[in-house]
Design goal:
heterotrimer, A mainly alpha (125), B mainly alpha (493), C mainly alpha (146), A: 125 residues, mainly alpha, Helix Hairpins, elongated, B: mainly alpha
């Protein structure tokens, strides 16, 4: 397993996690894009040492090629994160249309219930 | 048999595409959706009959060896859950069709096809025999659920949809990392091979993987403390969509958890699972008490009930797993029906807020009856299916002398009954409200809505009637899960 | 006459579009045995559409039919082997001797790839066309402050 790959995964995860804690949806999108890359890279790292492209040449030799299975998994994961990024962007745009901003807001009903006095007797001062 | 298994996955997907093409004709679109779902449901029942008599059936997709390719495994657990799940979607689709023209209905052009894509994902998630396909199935379910939740583009939906999307995306990302960890540790993502290899791994890695996937599936299943997205987002969606989500989505999470954690022999995580289960039950039940809106109370009940299934799993005994499976099968239709009745209340009264409702037991006794049966069943009163399921969980807990969690379960049961009483008093008793909102202005096919809900209620009663048979089947399914050799032997004959 | 966004972008996109489509077609057919495939082809076409949108050039907006057709093709190719007693998603390869061209090898993977391309292109179009349908005619259902 390559140290450089692991370091990259760590860095991407750290930055990605930092970004998704933001309130602005466009930052969250970026955060998930980075986290997706980190996930895909960790899949590649799990697949073993690097090698030649896993395409069987015409004489049928398979020596020295990289693990094709994790590459197939990684490709699928990339496709999925591509679709999800599109959706998140669309959601951010809709939120901007509605509120002129793309911030993630609080649960209103939750706030309303939190404000309720518990019982008539123990109303807070 | 291969055709039946394929039909449950490909059938709805094909119907979704065809329904997308009928943009103008609503009746053709509805017909396509209903026939796609009917074919899938009929196939699922066929699978159950086959598996019950003939044992586990394995389909190797594209003839690849299981280590490299996708396998679909129809064991008894999958065969039991699949028809119930598909039947629920079918009934909800009928309800949805009748509700289309009301303000609470979903946009039919999108909702029909997306519900079918979701169905296909549910079938795939239930039948798959490897973790990566499970990831893909989760994404199919989630992507369609994201769009279903937010497609009307209203502010409340977009706002709560964001929380839902971000939480679930995070769990999907963790799932992806988990796949990398599993592959690095065991060199495969096929569950049968993993069931062989994971128990032989060093303890640290083994429990680490178990805990990681507990968080992944736990977010989907909304266990404590990963539940906050659920009561926020579910009530804002159109009723039909909430009914499917509440009945199915969290249950797919708990289904995957039962499958993964029993097959991989994660017994050592038992105490932690039980602790989380107890807190989940109580938090859900207490949260429900604090709410003042029918849909939100019901959303909190979803969380509380997940705790019971988790408790059955956390016991890691055949009796516990049996009870968890039985609870799962009972809970899916009951929860869906409750949300459908909530939708009916909203449709006829114009609101689902308790303070603006009242006196419905006199004005519409049919609605009261439709609500009472699943409500009492959910609270776990005899003779309904909820009683059998809850009794099973608690008896399994007593057998394992898990006293604290059994006490939590009993307490949460009482609290659930209390919050159901709150709905009952607020909605059905008392004088009609002074400022009634009035029924929704646009016409809906109320008769079809009532009959769809009625059919579902009848379905839950059937479950109570055949509780004995279901218990035996669940026990066989649980034995198949706890004895991993049976599963491995089926995939690698 | 409409104002150009940029004197470079529009002619450049105009010129690149057909080349990129040829590239996408190559990727689509090469995908079976070499680098490429339906998804890559779809992304290239999607990039062309995105560029045309940026340059304010016309592009076909047929997202829903494309996605639907793509899924139908994929589902059909996936389910077809069942009719011959083979498992789901089984592949078959055909060889054909054509005059002048020589041996042409193709298989059921090709329509599958075309279906994938259609879906990817459809998704990109759907995003650029209208992200989430704004349905303002539906009244707000939930009252926030009772």
């Amino acid at each position: 397993m390559s140290i450089a790959l692991i370091g990259t995964v760590g860095g991407l995860t750290a930055v990605g996690l930092y970004l998704i804690t933001a309130r602005s949806l466009s930052r969250i999108v970026l955060g998930f894009a980075l986290l997706g890359h980190a996930g895909v890279l960790s899949l590649l790292a799990a697949g073993g040492p690097a090698g030649k492209a896993p395409i069987i040449s015409s004489d049928g030799t398979t020596t020295g090629i990289a693990n094709p299975l994790t590459q197939a998994l990684a490709l699928t994961a990339i496709v999925i994160s591509f679709g999800l990024t599109l959706f998140l962007l669309a959601l951010a745009r809709r939120q901007e249309e509605l509120t002129a901003d793309d911030l993630v807001e609080d649960d209103l009903e939750d706030r309303r219930i939190a404000r309720l006095p518990d019982l008539p007797g123990d109303r807070k001062p | 048999m291969s055709i039946l298994i394929s039909a449950t996955i490909v059938g709805p997907l094909l119907a979704a595409a065809i329904a997308l093409l009928f943009r103008r004709s609503a009746s053709l679109r509805d017909f396509t959706a209903i026939s796609g779902l009917t074919v899938a449901t009929a196939s699922a029942i066929g699978i159950l009959l086959h598996v019950e008599s003939g044992g586990t059936h394995v389909l190797r997709v594209g003839n690849w060896h299981p280590e490299l390719g996708i396998v679909l495994v129809a064991d008894l657990f999958a065969a039991l859950v699949l028809p119930v799940a598909l039947l629920i979607i079918l009934i909800v689709e009928f309800f949805a069709i009748s509700q289309r023209r009301t303000a609470w209905g979903a946009n039919p052009e999108l909702a029909g096809p997306l519900l079918l894509v979701l169905t296909s994902g549910v079938s795939l998630a239930i039948l798959t025999g490897d973790l990566f396909t499970l990831f893909v199935a989760f994404e199919m379910i989630l992507v369609s659920s994201y769009v279903l939740l937010t497609h009307q583009g209203q502010q409340a939906q977009v706002r709560s949809g964001m929380t839902y999307v971000v939480m679930n995306l995070l769990s999907s990302t963790l799932f992806l990392f988990g796949l990398a960890f599993v592959y690095a540790a065991a060199g495969t993502v096929n569950m049968a091979i993993l069931a062989e290899r994971i128990p032989t791994l060093p303890d640290g890695i083994r429990w680490g993987l178990g805990a990681w996937f507990f968080v992944v599936f736990g977010t989907k299943a909304a266990v404590f403390p990963l539940f906050s997205w659920l009561p926020d987002s579910y009530p804002t969606a159109p009723t039909t969509i909430t009914a499917v989500f509440a009945g199915l989505l969290t249950k797919i999470g708990i289904y995957s958890m039962i499958r993964f954690h029993t097959l991989m022999e994660m017994d050592a995580l038992g105490p932690a699972l039980l602790a989380v289960a107890a807190i989940t039950m109580l938090i859900g039940a207490l949260g429900a008490l604090a709410q003042s809106d029918v849909k939100r109370i019901l959303s909190f009940h979803v969380i509380s009930q997940i705790g019971y299934m988790l408790m059955g799993l956390g016991l890691f005994s055949v009796a516990g797993t049996t009870a968890a499976i039985l609870f799962l099968i009972h809970h899916m239709p009951v929860k869906t029906v409750l949300f459908l009745v909530g939708g009916l209340i909203e449709n006829t009264q114009g609101t689902s807020r308790l303070s603006k409702l009242g006196g419905l037991s006199r004005t519409s006794p049919a609605l009261a009856a439709l609500f009472a049966v699943p409500a009492l069943s959910l609270a776990g009163l005899p003779p309904f299916s909820g009683f059998v399921a809850k009794l099973g969980v608690i008896r399994a807990g007593v057998e394992e002398t898990a006293t604290l969690v059994v006490m939590a379960a009993l307490l949460a049961g009482a609290l659930t009954l209390l919050s159901m009483t709150k709905i009952w008093i607020g909605v059905f008793w008392g004088p009609p409200p002074e400022h009634a909102v009035g029924p929704s202005p646009t016409p809906a096919n109320r008769r079809l809505m009532y009959s769809a809900t009625g059919t579902a209620v009848a379905g839950t009663l059937t479950i109570s009637l055949f509780a004995g048979t279901l218990f035996d089947l669940s026990q066989r399914a649980a034995t198949g899960l706890t004895t991993a050799d049976l599963y491995i032997g089926a995939v690698f004959p | 006459m409409k104002t150009r966004l940029s004197p470079i972008l529009e002619p450049a996109v105009q010129g690149v579009s057909p080349l990129a489509l040829v590239m996408a077609t190559y990727l689509l057919f090469a995908g079976h045995n070499g680098p490429g495939g339906g998804f890559a082809a779809g992304l290239v076409i999607g990039a062309v559409i995105a560029l045309r949108r940026l340059a304010d050039l016309p592009f076909p907006a047929v997202a829903t039919p494309l996605i639907a057709t793509g899924i139908i093709v994929i589902a059909t190719v996936a389910a077809a082997p069942l009719l011959f007693g083979n498992p789901l998603l089984d592949q078959s390869v055909w060889k054909l001797e054509l005059p002048l061209i020589g041996t042409v090898k193709s298989g059921s993977a090709l329509p599958f790839d075309i279906g994938v391309t259609a879906i990817v292109v459809g998704l990109v179009m759907a995003l650029l066309d209208s992200p989430i349908e704004a349905s303002d005619e539906i009244p707000h259902v939930r009252e926030e402050n009772p």
